[in-house]
Write a sequence for this structure.
């Protein structure tokens, strides 16, 4: 988590995606759905995207998220709620852009490329909110968990489990374990690493921390 907050962190390496054994047709449909998901998520800021991903795909609750973000649980609850609302608006706009872009000159002009960039997605959301024709158009309801289910899942390296178990139990790696423990401290009362650049947040109130089939989507009408 400290690496995530570091401005000098390396972000150029991508992990290979898990192999789902899909056919070429299924892969093409999944890619189409991913473009829709990316277009909708582009309207959110980075903190909102991270919060909703952790809450929906990883099923973390407000207390878990408060440990990750270093803020009170009440603030993470508001963050996730606002992210859900903004994502619903962005998805509605993205579905209009995907399936009804010919019906509105402004939408057609905004969505000349696909998927949408963050700036274009935000502009599209504002347009739909102010356009009587686009704003009244109904789009199929799509739960957030289904929207995010098509996003890539990194494959776990085959030798990772053995390496972790060896690092945790081998007698000749005891010095490594002590060094790792010293390097990752300090932790909060729940075991989350605390930011080293700011004081620890107040303990979250409430209950103790918890341990942490795709369906058909609309397809883009026509081609550009």
């Amino acid at each position: 988590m400290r690496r995530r907050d570091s401005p000098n962190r390396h972000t150029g390496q991508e992990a290979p995606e898990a192999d789902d054994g899909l056919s070429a047709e299924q892969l093409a449909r999944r890619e189409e759905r991913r473009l829709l998901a990316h277009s909708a998520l582009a309207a959110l800021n980075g903190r909102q995207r991270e919060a909703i991903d952790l809450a929906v795909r990883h099923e973390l609750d407000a207390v878990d998220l408060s440990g990750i973000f270093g803020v009170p649980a009440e603030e993470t609850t508001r963050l996730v709620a606002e992210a859900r609302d903004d994502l619903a608006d962005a998805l509605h706009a993205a579905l209009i852009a995907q399936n009804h872009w010919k019906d509105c000159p402004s939408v057609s002009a905004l969505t000349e490329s696909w998927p949408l960039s963050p700036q274009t997605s935000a502009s599209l959301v504002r347009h739909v909110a102010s356009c009587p024709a686009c704003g009244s158009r109904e789009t199929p309801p799509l739960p957030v968990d289904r929207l995010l289910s098509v996003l890539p899942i990194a494959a776990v390296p085959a030798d990772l489990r053995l390496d972790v178990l060896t690092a945790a139990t081998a007698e000749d790696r005891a010095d490594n374990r002590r060094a790792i423990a010293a390097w990752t401290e300090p932790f909060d009362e729940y075991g989350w690493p605390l930011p080293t650049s700011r004081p620890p947040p107040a303990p979250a109130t409430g209950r103790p921390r918890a341990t942490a089939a795709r369906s058909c989507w609309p397809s883009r009408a026509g081609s550009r």
Remarks:
- Confidence is low (pLDDT under 50) at residues 203-224.
- The longest helix spans residues 73-99.
